[in-house]
Write a structure and sequence with these properties.
This protein has about 80 residues and is an alpha+beta fold. The chain has a domain at about 25-75. Helix content is about 15%, strand content about 25%. The chain is built from two helices and four strands; from the N terminus they run βββααβ. The protein has a two-stranded antiparallel ribbon with strand order 1-2. A two-stranded parallel ribbon has the order 3-4. β1 (about 10-15) and β2 form a beta hairpin. It starts with 9 loop residues before the first strand and ends with a strand.
Length: about 80
């Protein structure tokens, strides 16, 4: 089994009652005008980080988060 390494983002943790919530943040590119913030949420018990921030070598923008940050959004 291979290890997955996440890059370019910041890990955050918070609580909702007694439940721990994981958050993954990526900042907008400084090379384009800032357009706003997008908040990705999911309704599954599985981690959503691979869904929203998937890296596939040789396939630019497999990560929805990378696409939006390149276009001026914090995600």
């Amino acid at each position: 089994m291979s290890n997955v390494t996440w890059s370019g983002g910041t890990e955050h943790w918070t609580k909702k009652g007694d439940i721990n919530l994981f958050l993954w943040e990526k900042k907008a590119s400084p090379d384009v005008p800032f357009k706003g913030t997008l908040f990705f949420i999911h309704g599954s018990s599985m981690a959503s980080q691979p869904t929203f921030d998937l890296y596939v070598q040789g396939r630019p923008y497999s990560s929805a988060m990378d696409w939006f940050t390149a276009h001026g959004y914090d995600t």
